[in-house]
């Protein structure tokens, strides 16, 4: 029982990763240090798992990944600071993003607390689509809920394991969605759904609700008519889909909002109802396994040198970033990889790494 004046206790989930040195020995030292943290009680640790490196420089060794569960009365910032101190003590050096490291300690969940600051984001912004994070986490905390998604960690992991190999790219600007989706297709040799005979036959265009007038987007039944698409459906055993790249398409933010379980009464939600997208989402539509959300600022507000040549300099988004996030960050939408900026190399790198984190067989 908590005594008057005592700080509240939060249940926290921490991810461990290492691909340098004696990884198991480093993990043992990290767990020892975590168990000795002031105002913390170590509750459980997962099995250690070998995983394929995702993103970052090429030629890295395989990772060892794991997770620990603890109770703490430290604040999120105090706990994050303690994790950084343990990393430094065990030889961690932060130089290149996603580079090899002796130890990586990430605060994944702090109860159901949401923290958004330049120093710390909780829940971890990329945990919803990273199999190498969710698999050990489910060993010890499968019933914990990811508040930004509204699913338990076990539900998220099962989704990534069995979902249709289908990736959606969306943004406030359609032209940027088109450009990035096409480049993802080239990178993975993926089919673009809009280019498939089935899509042309149906005449669907789910951008801003045009599908209500021009046709329907392919449903599961429609996908099953195409051998190439059917091979990527969730009904196919996961082992039979290994090495098969996902289908890629673009969808409007409003169309993706229709998948959420909590519609709101704002102007964007009214547009969803106006275009009949809620009904479309409920009629056996193919749900994406992963959404790539391009949080690009208005091109008109950026220096001309930072805008890709493929985009017109006068390009402006259809909606604000706040409206864009209102469409996506809602329970039921599913895993989302938020990627910002117009630096094409960084955007493509982030998008392809997110896809490989869902399907590690594509990174081998």
What do these coordinates show?
The protein is of the alpha/beta class and 364 residues long. The chain folds into two domains: 10-131, Alpha-Beta Plaits, CATH 3.30.70; 163-362, Rossmann fold, CATH 3.40.50. Helix content is 34%, strand content 17%. The chain is built from 14 helices and 13 strands. It has helices at residues 23-35, 76-89, 131-141, 153-162, 174-188, 197-202, 211-214, 220-223, 227-230, 253-257, 267-274, 277-282, 321-328, 344-358; strands at 10-18, 40-45, 49-51, 63-72, 104-110, 115-116, 121-122, 145-146, 151-152, 166-170, 247-250, 290-295, 336-340. The strands form four sheets. Strands 1, 2, 3, 4 and 5 form a five-stranded antiparallel sheet that branches. The protein has a four-stranded parallel sheet with strand order 11-10-12-13, sandwiched between helices. Strand 8 (145-146) and strand 9 form a beta hairpin. Helix 3 packs across helix 4 and helix 5 (174-188) crosses helix 14 (344-358).
SSE inventory with pairings:
Elements: E1 10-18, H1 23-35, E2 40-45, E3 49-51, E4 63-72, H2 76-89, E5 104-110, E6 115-116, E7 121-122, H3 131-141, E8 145-146, E9 151-152, H4 153-162, E10 166-170, H5 174-188, H6 197-202, H7 211-214, H8 220-223, H9 227-230, E11 247-250, H10 253-257, H11 267-274, H12 277-282, E12 290-295, H13 321-328, E13 336-340, H14 344-358
Parallel strand pairs: 10-11, 10-12, 12-13
Antiparallel strand pairs: 1-4, 1-5, 2-4, 3-4, 6-7, 8-9
Helix pairs in contact: 3-4, 5-14
């Amino acid at each position: 029982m908590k005594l008057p004046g005592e700080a509240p206790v939060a249940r926290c989930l921490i991810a461990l990763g290492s691909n340098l040195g004696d990884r198991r020995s480093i993990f043992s030292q990290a767990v020892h240090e975590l168990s000795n943290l002031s105002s913390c009680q170590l509750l459980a640790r997962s099995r250690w798992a070998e995983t394929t490196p995702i993103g970052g420089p090429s030629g890295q060794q395989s990772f060892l990944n794991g997770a620990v569960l603890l109770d703490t009365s430290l604040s999120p910032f105090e706990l994050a600071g303690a994790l950084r101190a343990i990393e430094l003590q065990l030889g961690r050096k932060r130089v290149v993003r996603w580079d090899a490291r002796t130890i990586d300690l990430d605060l994944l969940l702090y109860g159901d607390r949401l923290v958004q600051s330049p120093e710390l984001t909780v829940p971890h912004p990329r945990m919803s689509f990273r199999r190498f994070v969710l698999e050990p986490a489910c060993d010890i905390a499968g019933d914990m809920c990811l508040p930004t998604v509204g699913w338990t960690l076990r539900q998220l992991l099962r989704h990534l394991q069995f979902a249709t190999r289908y990736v959606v790219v969306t943004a406030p600007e359609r032209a940027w969605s088109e450009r990035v989706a096409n480049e993802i297709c080239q990178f993975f040799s993926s089919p673009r759904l809009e280019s498939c005979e089935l899509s042309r036959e149906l005449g669907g265009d789910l951008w801003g609700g045009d599908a209500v007038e021009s046709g329907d987007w392919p449903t599961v039944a429609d996908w099953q008519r195409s051998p190439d698409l059917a091979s990527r459906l969730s009904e196919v055993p996961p082992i039979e889909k290994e090495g098969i790249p996902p289908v890629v398409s673009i969808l409007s933010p409003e169309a993706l909002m229709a998948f959420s379980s909590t519609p709101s009464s704002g102007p964007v939600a009214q547009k969803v109802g106006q275009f009949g997208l809620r009904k479309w989402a409920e009629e056996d539509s193919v749900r994406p396994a992963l959404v790539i959300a391009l949080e690009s600022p208005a091109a008109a507000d950026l220096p001309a040198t930072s805008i890709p040549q493929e985009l017109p300099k006068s390009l402006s988004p259809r909606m604000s970033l706040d409206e864009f996030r209102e469409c996506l960050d809602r329970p039921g939408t599913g895993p989302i990889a938020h990627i910002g900026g117009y630096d094409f190399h960084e955007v493509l790198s982030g998008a392809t790494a997110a896809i490989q984190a869902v399907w590690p067989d594509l990174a081998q």
